[in-house]
């Protein structure tokens, strides 16, 4: 039972840290749109999706909650990168 508490705590901690980073970074990016090179967030969107599917495949094949936590952090990052590129249109 103690192992599951540690796993859930680790999952929540990673998710909260990633969300906090992207919220703060997104605010900074919106204020400094002219300093963003090219289509950076489009590249990051597809890169994070690639890593999320990689960790999903590994987690399904071999198990492991750490891999699921990494997968969720990459999915959160892909959502924020896609939001900044496709919705907020932050590119040159």
Give an account of the 3D structure.
This protein is 83% helix and 0% strand. With 92 residues, it is mostly helical. The radius of gyration is 15 Å and the shape is elongated.
Please describe the topology of this protein.
Blueprint: H1 2-31, H2 40-62, H3 65-87
Helix pairs in contact: 1-3, 2-3
**Mean pLDDT over the residues:** 88
The helix/strand class is mainly alpha
Q: Main beta sheet: strand number and arrangement?
A: none
The number of helical segments is 3
The fraction of residues in strands falls at under 5%
Q: Enumerate the spans where pLDDT stays under 50 for 5 or more consecutive residues.
A: none
Shape call: elongated
| Domains, number | 1
Specify the helix fraction band: over 70%
- Write the H/E string, N to C: HHH
Termini, distance in Å?
51 Å
Question: What is the CA-based Rg, rounded?
Answer: 15 Å
Please count the beta strands (DSSP E, at least 2 residues each).
0
